[in-house]
Amino acid sequence: MKMELALYQALISINVPELKAHAVIEALESDMQTFLATKSDISTLRHQLVTDTAQVRSEISQTRSEIAHLDVKLTIRMGVMLSATIGILIAAMRFIH
Prior knowledge:
It is built from three helices and no strands. By secondary structure, it is mostly helical.
């Protein structure tokens, strides 16, 4: 409230009409309430970011676990395919001779 009074007195001292001074102060107050963040706003945002970060880390950990599982599964599948291919080649070589 002190700031509004000081601003009003400053505007009046430089011969700004009273109605315009009130309009400037109301516009400034409206913008300050709309566009500026309070300590409470920042604290709430910080808490939300901490929560979201923890959730993202959990999801990353889960994704890494799934990738490791798929890596093992792919390795086994490639081993089976390689064994089958070698078996077919050996059978083909015996068949040809």
